[in-house]
Amino acid sequence: MRGPGDDPTLSEAELIGRRTAWFKVYTRQRNVFAPTGGGPCTCPCCGHTTLSERGRYEICEECGWEDDGQDDHVSAAVRGGPNGRLSLDASRSTTFTETDARSAA
């Protein structure tokens, strides 16, 4: 199934090939995991203790970051996974800018 951002000039086979290649690279990333039951854990984006575990795609209730295991060692990388086109650094910057604005109001 084609998505709205897919290149219409690609054949189905080319599209599947690109998606498969992206998935292989994405799943080879070094991720941070915490064992189940070891929580609560802090969100890598906002730092609040909102996650029951790390690296298991839980969404932070404070900032909305989906924890895919990305952390400081690759915080500038845009992985293109659940957090779209945001790196952890960019999301942190946005989160803290919004927090500062709310605090000043």
Keywords:
single chain; 105 residues; mainly alpha; two-stranded antiparallel ribbon; elongated; Cys_rich_CPCC; CPCC family cysteine-rich protein
Beta-strand percent range: under 5%
Domain module tally: 1
> How would you state the average pLDDT, rounded?
83
Number of helices: 2
Could you give the count of β-strands?
Answer: 2
Domain Cysteine-rich CPCC: 41-93
Pfam families: Cys_rich_CPCC
Organism: Amycolatopsis speibonae
Protein name: CPCC family cysteine-rich protein
Describe this structure in words.
InterPro entries: Cys_rich_CPCC (IPR025983). Pfam families: Cys_rich_CPCC (PF14206). This is CPCC family cysteine-rich protein. The chain contains two helices and two strands. It is mostly helical. The chain has one domain. It has a two-stranded antiparallel ribbon with strand order 1-2. A hairpin with a 6-residue loop joins strand 1 and strand 2.
Write the layout of secondary structure elements.
Elements: H1 12-27, E1 41-42, E2 49-51, H2 88-104
Antiparallel strand pairs: 1-2
Task: Kindly summarize this structure in a few lines.
The chain has helices at 12-27, 88-104, and strands at 41-42, 49-51. It is mostly helical and 105 residues long.
